[in-house]
Amino acid sequence: MNRILLLATALLAPLHARAALDVVTTTQGLAALAQEVGGERVKVQSLSRGIQDPHFVDANPTLAVKLRNADLLVDVGLDLEIGWLPPLVNQSRNPDIQPTGSRRFTAASVVSVLEVPRGPVDRSMGDLHPAGNPHFLSDPRCARKVAEGLARKLTSLDAGGAATYQKRLADFERRLDADEARWRAEWAPVRGRKVIPYHNSWIYFLDWAGLQGAGYLEPKPGVPPPPSHLAELVGVAKAQGVKAILVENFYDRKSADVVARHSGAKVMMLPGDVGGTPQAKSYEAWVDQLVQLVSGAVR
Ligand SMILES: [Zn+2]
């Protein structure tokens, strides 16, 4: 019996010689990129789901358990997760995933951040973007930077995987090249069209797509719109010929419907991240769906 067990163990051993790196991300979009680059060398879990508002995730203690043994924590940064990630990281008692730890990768550190405030920031107004706009991942140019940063970080933690990470990154970027050629063709006829997002979460995406924002449903990120603001937006939408109101599907669409009804703009409910709809299964599928929905709405 013992001999059989020993034999079985010996046969299985090579398969388990190297455990996959345990990667935990704060969002599903980051998880998708980590999986693209890491392949079978990583086991990726996301703390939040694409159907959730990433600013407000329940800091459930079970999430701290996932962080306890994490080999790498990947977060967005710019205070996107300020309301829920710091307590979880503290509870995890994993010193290496602290903000300056060797097993932490903050995606915002490798992208050109937009809307970085210049003067002092007044958080009393409930502004959710005190350090700059954290919603960059829907712009494929930013996603490339993040994937490249992830490849460097994974290589620093697992030098034996360097060739794998490089190859997978190159494959991903080649696929994005082909996607982007297709996406550019979708944007070409609608360049310059105007939209009003609910939350200030599409600035990078609109810049990439060549569309223009004409205001936001929220008077400030995180502040629900008062009726006076909606009335003002109806005027803006009519005057500027706004085609669509962009709303992540975790927000209530009522205020968007009000502006739409009085202005003729269309309300477009969008997946806020990978996993935000059943179709948005991968990074490419998510952006593909965004391109189809938004370009269709502004046509
Ligand atoms: Zn935000």
Percent of residues in helical segments?
A: 40-55%
CATH architecture of the largest domain: 3-Layer(aba) Sandwich
Class from secondary-structure proportions: alpha/beta
How many helices? The count is 10
Using DSSP, what is the number of strands? 8
Strands side by side in the biggest sheet: 2-1-3-4
Q: Report the mean per-residue pLDDT as an integer.
A: 94
Number of domains: 2
Termini separation comes to: 71 Å
Low-confidence stretches: none
User: Oligomer, anyone?
Assistant: single chain
Instruction: Give the overall shape.
Output: globular
Question: How would you describe what is shown here?
Answer:
The chain has 299 residues and is α/β, with parallel strands linked by helices. It is 43% helix and 11% strand. The relative contact order is 0.13. Strands 2-1-3-4 form a 4-stranded parallel sheet, with helices on one face. The protein has a 4-stranded parallel sheet with strand order 6-5-7-8. The chain has 10 helices and 8 strands.
